[in-house]
Each structure stands twice: as structure tokens, then as C-alpha cells.
Design a protein that fits this description.
299 residues; 12 strands; two-stranded antiparallel sheet; single chain; alpha/beta
Length: 299
């Protein structure tokens, strides 16, 4: 595993990190007989294996249902809190009735207190606004609460997780956030050049989510819709490069993201240790060829 500095936080994070959504909430491609969150003992075992494989950054959220509690109990049993960087979020929680959003000042402080308790920790390494819309970023009420928690030593660094280009730019141009978590994959490359260059010049840590396009780049083409199959047809052009380097499609997709210098880490969620190993192996793979990159950029 290779490591990169997470912007101005100075944290030395693994290039591949663990997204804990699937550990606490039913999520993912609905494969017959292979869907749903794992048993807690299996989730804890995966956390332990992630650490063994060099992963030191875990991303979770109250919206991931039981994820924070499982992480908290698992790390407590391991006694290895200081070997993980824990990132969680504020603004959204999820239960059997669906998602509820609260970006208010008091709501934000409540999120943090609950996360500290569930994660069984005295501090959170990175707190992020979950799915922050532009108006929440511009209003600043949530940020004010995060800074209060930071002043009290409850959180170390402040970030934002965004869903679209406008929110990403709003967060970046504000200069208030240490990190930005955002979508980026080989079929969505809007951030290349100008955005990533400005983030790098301003020492903002970039955390990538959905690098596998919400499973569409998983290689499980039998589980995508007809319209998605048409969208993914161009990926056939990458088969020669996969064969040449001995890569699966997910590995090639992850390696492409890591070719971007502004990226600090990729969050990859999984319930299975074999997938975890496959993801981690990407960090030590050689760079993609210029021909491969050119082909991707023409897709």
C-alpha cells in the first residue's frame, strides 16, 4: 500500500480507503443470494483485515445505519484506535423510514455527540457535511457548528462531501474546508485540469467516492439496465489494456483515478475480503500507459 498526504490536514492516508456503508446498511448491486449487510463478526473481521492490508482511513456516516456502532465496537475490541483515521459526517441519518436531513447548528452538534458515542472515541479525525448542497455551504451555519466542535477538540479537521459540480466549486472557493469528498471516475472527468489543479494549489485534500460509478464499473454487467449497458459499451476499448496488465475492470478504473496527483485517497466499499484484497492491490500496480489514458479520455 502506498500513502499520500491528505492536503493541509497532514494526515498520511492509504491510497485505497474503506467505505463502511455496506458494513451497516443494506446496499449495493442486488445480486441474488448475495445482498445485504454482513453479520457484525464478519464486518469486524473485514475491518481487521483492512488494517492488515495497509488501509488506515475509514469513511462512515450516521446515514450508514449501524456502521458507526459496528466500527466503534470493533475498534474497541482491537484496541487499535490510534492506527485508524476515522471520518464520519453530519447532516443526514437513515432509519427504516428513509433519510432525514438536518444541517442546523444544534442538529450538527447533536450529530457529532452521537457519532463520538457510537464510534467509541474521544475525537473524530475528519468530520464532513454529508451531501452538502450549495445553499448549505454558502449559509455557513453547519460550518460554524463544526468549527465549534473543532475548538472543543472533538474533531480534528473539517471537510465536505458533495454530490455535484456546483457544490464542489462552492466548497473549494470558500477556502473553509480541509477536504472535499466527491465523485470522479473514468466516465465522469469534469474535475480534471482546472478543479483538481486549483485544489492542489490550495492544498485541499481530495477524497474520491464512487470511483466505480456506483457499481457500473464493477464488471458485473449482467446487473445493469439496458440503458446503462449502452453507456458502458465504450469500455470494450479497454479490454486490450486489461489483458496486457492482467487487470480487472475495477482495478483499471481505480488505477486511473490514482493517476490524478490531486487525489489523496479513494473510498471503496465492500463486504468481502477478496474484493478488499483486489482493491488494495491497485495501489502497488504500475502506472497506466499513455495509450490507455488517451483511450479512456476519448470514451
Amino acid at each position: 500500500m502506498k500513502y499520500r498526504i491528505l492536503g493541509r490536514t497532514g494526515l498520511n492516508v492509504s491510497e485505497i480507503s474503506l467505505g463502511a456503508l455496506e458494513l451497516g446498511r443494506d446496499w449495493g448491486i442486488r445480486v441474488p443470494n448475495d445482498y445485504g449487510k454482513p453479520k457484525e463478526k464478519d464486518a469486524v473481521h473485514l475491518l481487521e483485515k483492512a488494517l492488515d492490508l495497509g488501509i488506515n482511513f475509514i469513511d462512515t456516516a450516521p446515514a450508514y445505519q449501524y456502521s458507526e456502532e459496528i466500527i466503534g465496537r470493533g475498534i474497541n475490541r482491537q484496541g487499535k484506535r490510534d492506527r485508524y483515521y476515522l471520518a464520519t459526517k453530519v447532516g443526514e441519518w437513515f432509519d427504516e423510514n428513509g433519510s432525514v436531513y438536518d444541517y442546523s447548528f444544534q442538529g450538527t452538534l447533536k450529530f457529532i455527540e452521537q457519532s463520538l458515542q457510537k464510534l467509541n472515541t474521544d475525537y473524530i479525525d475528519l468530520i464532513q457535511i454529508h451531501s452538502a448542497p450549495v445553499d448549505v455551504i454558502e449559509k455557513g451555519e453547519t460550518l460554524e457548528a463544526l468549527k465549534k466542535a473543532q475548538d472543543e477538540g472533538k474533531v480534528r479537521f473539517i471537510g465536505v462531501s458533495v454530490e455535484d459540480e456546483s457544490a464542489a466549486w462552492s466548497a473549494l472557493e470558500s477556502g473553509e474546508y480541509d477536504t472535499i469528498q466527491m465523485d470522479y471516475h473514468l466516465l465522469d472527468r469534469w474535475a480534471e485540469d482546472e478543479f483538481f489543479l486549483k485544489a492542489k494549489n490550495n492544498n485541499i485534500g481530495i477524497i474520491i467516492k464512487n470511483a466505480l460509478y456506483r457499481g457500473r464499473l464493477s464488471g458485473k454487467s449482467q446487473y445493469v439496465s439496458p440503458s446503462e449497458k449502452q453507456e458502458l459499451e465504450g469500455l470494450n476499448q479497454l479490454h486490450p489494456f486489461q489483458t496486457e496488465m492482467g487487470l480487472s475492470l475495477p482495478q483499471l478504473a481505480l488505477k486511473y483515478v490514482l493517476m490524478e496527483e490531486a487525489v489523496s485517497t479513494i473510498i471503496v466499499g465492500t463486504r468481502k475480503i477478496e474484493h478488499l484484497k483486489e482493491n488494495v492491490a491497485v495501489s502497488d500496480l504500475p502506472p497506466l500507459s499513455k495509450e490507455c489514458i488517451t483511450t479512456i479520455q476519448k470514451l
